[in-house]
Design a protein that fits this description.
Blueprint (H helix, E strand, L loop, with lengths): L1 H9 L3 H10 L8 H9 L3 H22 L6 H8 L1
Helix pairs in contact: 1-2, 2-4
């Protein structure tokens, strides 16, 4: 995902860069640094693609597990 972001940024392909960062949401903590870097560099288009993809992935996750389980993951993180 990091290499995809770097390659997309070098080729001025913000949509692919945003999708690459969204791949990092498998482990959300790994997406923090690239998001902060994109904010620092003011890559708004890349960030908007990332945010849109993140919203779609969140909606799919909620649809799969149900609304009642939304707080289960944060609770599990706090318990661990």
């Amino acid at each position: 995902a990091w290499l995809g972001l770097i390659a997309a940024e070098l080729k001025s392909r913000p949509v692919l860069g945003g999708l690459a960062v969204a791949l990092m949401l498998v482990k959300p903590q790994s997406a923090l640094l690239p998001v902060f870097w994109l904010l620092y560099r003011r890559r708004w288009r890349t960030l908007s693609v990332f945010a849109g993809t993140a919203l779609v992935l969140a909606a799919v996750s909620i649809a799969v597990v149900g609304v009642s389980q939304i707080d289960a993951y944060p609770r599990a993180l706090l318990d661990s």
